[in-house]
Amino acid sequence: MPWFVALALLVVPIVEIYVIIQIGQVIGGWPTVALLLVESALGAWIIKREGRRAWRALQSSFETGKMPGRELADAALVLVGGTLLLTPGFVTDIFGFFFVLPFTRPLARRGMSAFFNRRLAGQLGGAGLGGSGLGDSGPGDFIPGAGGPTRPPQSSGDVVQGEVIDPDTK
Fold it and tell me: Which residues contact 13 (CB under 8 A, 6 or more apart)?
């Protein structure tokens, strides 16, 4: 398990409890509980609506034969956002709504694309998928929702004519 996941599993509940206590001191205990319940109900309704929308878009892209990059990214964001919304607390709900709401999801998708570009560039030794490897969305960078790399892979131009002989088969 990466260290940041372990740290998040320790820190997030502490932050959530602290925020709930602070809000409870300002508006009272029962209103805080009611606010958490209303947030959860609203979150469940939005997850259901946006999940259906993401599923329909994914099916449509498969039926038309289009590469479903954006649709897959949206489905992943709705899944993660839904998980955060169903987790009790105000801080996780803020991030959950950011991932799930249709007018903030494009921002989250761009952030996710930049994150994956940086990770991929680190895995490939700074090469990325065609750009500078810094998540700058240059030509050829992986952008969920863009339908794959924006240019074909470059070859060296050398073509070697010949025959492949497998030494194990005779």
Answer: none
